[in-house]
Amino acid sequence: MQADLARMVREAVSDLEQKKRSLELEIEKLERRRDRIDAEMKTSFAGASQDLAVRVQSFKEYLVGSLQDLATSAEQLQLTIAEPRVPRQDVVRAAAPEPEPPPQSAAAVTSRYLRDTERIQSLLDQYRLRPDYYGPIWQLRRTFEPIHADRIANWFFSQGGRGAIKTLNSRLQNVLMASAAISVLHTMHGDRLRVLVLANSPERLGDWRRGFQDCLGVSRADFGTRSGIMLFESSEPMAQRAERLLENNYLPFIIIDESEGMISLSVLQFPLWLAIAPDPANPTSDYYDFQ
Residue 150 — very low, low, confident or very high, per pLDDT cuts 50/70/90? Predict the structure, then answer.
């Protein structure tokens, strides 16, 4: 019996040692997989952007200048709305309505960013130097490189939150820059901020939706006419929605995909807009980068 008992103990110990070795091998496989995923994340979001930044030698400055000229022209236009004629007797009897408070001007909104330069720069430095991949919703969750930070800082401080940013010829990188702007604006304005995205096809809008989910941690519930992000294929309904948002004390932030060859003047009247300026010599591929 003692011999049988000793044999059973040895077999049990051998079986346990074999299971231990199997578990150690599985752990090593998982660790290698984790390291590979970390390397791929760094390559996808950091290396790819740096590689694109090096390879892209020139951009078409005329488009950026044209957009800024359009914005200046729109600000100088004096638009008036013809009032309907009212019978004279109605004018005499009707009490004079109280004047409505004027909507917040673009200058009043964008001048705030110059006053808050230190705060905005601190947020951009945080995204670049201390990325939080599991941060709260609306906070940037992806690797943010100096090329992204420089362009967003220029959009805030030099363009006052109203202007074009040169494409990085990758929709992933363009969505990343727009997400950083959204993250800063949401930190400053909270739930008043409403994002309106204009692109010329459902496929491109789908790319923006998935990109925001990836970069900002938002869900499908955050998209819709009564939610934080709204998607449009045409500028007219988008401008109408932005006007209603302003009337209800919300702050619309318009983002224009590089697929839009022309920008309606009705869009340029709003306090915040960011247009992705395309590179005609090297257009962005329609293939979705967030797969």
Answer: very high
Per the CB < 8 A criterion, the answer to whether 230 and 208 are in contact is no
Both tokens of residue 94? 């009707």
Which whole-number Å values give the CA distances from 195 to 44, 124, 267, in the listed order? 26, 19, 13
Question: Is residue 220 within 8 Å of 212, Cβ to Cβ?
Answer: no
Type of residue numbered 240 = Q
Rounded CA separation 47/49 (Å):
5
Report residue 267 CA to chain centroid gap. Answer: 18
* SS3 sequence of 177-216: HHHHHHHHHHHHHHHHEEEEEECCCHHHHHHHHHHHHHHH
Residue 111 has pLDDT above 70, yes or no: no
The answer to whether the predicted template modeling score (pTM) of the entire model surpasses 0.85 is: no
CA distances to 30, 71, 275 from 290, rounded to whole Å, are 23, 32, 21
